[in-house]
Structures are given as structure tokens and as C-alpha cells.
Amino acid sequence: MTQLSLCVFCGARSGGTAAYGLAARALGGAIAHQGWRLVYGAGDVGLMGEVARAALAAGASSLGVIPKHLMTREQGKRDLTTLIITEDMHERKKVMFMNSDAVAVLPGGAGSLDEFFEVLTWAQIGLHAKPIFLVDVDGYWQPLLALIEHVIAEGFADQGLRGLFAVVPDVATLILRLKSAFP
Asked: H or E stretch including 40?
């Protein structure tokens, strides 16, 4: 592999805690520092804008993928290395995933949950074995992890579901885990 391509799913909003923006900027900078490529939703708003601006400012290459109906709403960035405009959200997720080696999920809302569960489901049914990381900034994903435990306890998934993704407490740990997975 010549260059790791990291797909970052995260909020198109900034959230209510400054730590989320700090983590987004740290991840963008770290992607550039490692010589990796950012693959993300091409928006210039919320956490995704923070990740992208930090990555680009530090010299990272980037692939942004955005459906045409969100170009205005998410202020689609045009200063990316590559910009792909898709017909719909499903195509956006597919193109992002197909062009990445691993997935990191920062805090976000319904869209980030949709993206996480789609790639998790694809792993569950054997369509891929790419690493998926939840970046648990200030414990943001703890309610989701409790829900996943509930799903397992109620018999709707087996315990192997836990092994299809990893939870990391911060961006520094994410970078170490990625460097270990992709030496």
C-alpha cells in the first residue's frame, strides 16, 4: 500500500462540546502528518469541515464525496484533491467506502450513525474486513455501545458483532492503531 486512505464519518454539525472540534482538527492534522489521504463527505460545515480544513491546511490529499442535493446545505468544498458528486446518499457511502482502507467515526448525528451501521452491517455479512473505529471523544459513543450490548443480549446479534469494530478513546490512540494495522 502506498498511501492509507482513511474514511472519516462525522457530524455536519459541531455538537455541543469543544472537544469534538478539537478531535476533528487533530484527526485532520494527523492524517496529513502521516501522509495519508482523507476520504470524507466533502462538506465544509460542522466536524467534517473541521477535519477537512485541518487536513488540507497541513497538506493532506483528499477525496470528498457529496450528493448533489447537499452541495449547498453542506457547503461542498471545491478545493479538494478530488471531488465526486453523487446522485444520492447511498452512492455517497458506497464511493467513500470503496475508496478507503479503514473507517473512523467521530461524533455525529443520524447521518453518522447511518454510515457506521451500514459499514458495520457490511462487515457482519462478510462483505469486507476493513477496520472500523469509533473515536469515543469524551465518552460520546457510550450510549451507542450500550445499545449494541442490548442488541446482543436480546439475541438480535451474536457476540461476534463486538469484534467487527474497535473503540478508541482519542485521535492519538486511533493513529497508533492505524499505524499498527497498516505498517
From this structure: strand 37-40
Separation between Cα atoms, residue 98 and residue 49, nearest integer Å:
21
Task: Give the whole-angstrom CA distance, residue 110 versus residue 31.
Answer: 25
pTM above 0.90, yes or no: yes
- The boundaries of the domain holding residue 56 are 5-181
141-178 residue pLDDT tens: 999 999 999 999 999 999 999 999 999 999 999 999 99
**Total domains, the chain:** 1
Angle at 114 between CA 110 and CA 119, to 5 degrees: 155
- CATH no. for residue 66? 3.40.50.450
Residues 15, 20, 22, 28: is their CA dihedral positive or negative? negative
Distance CA 183, CA 172 (A): 16
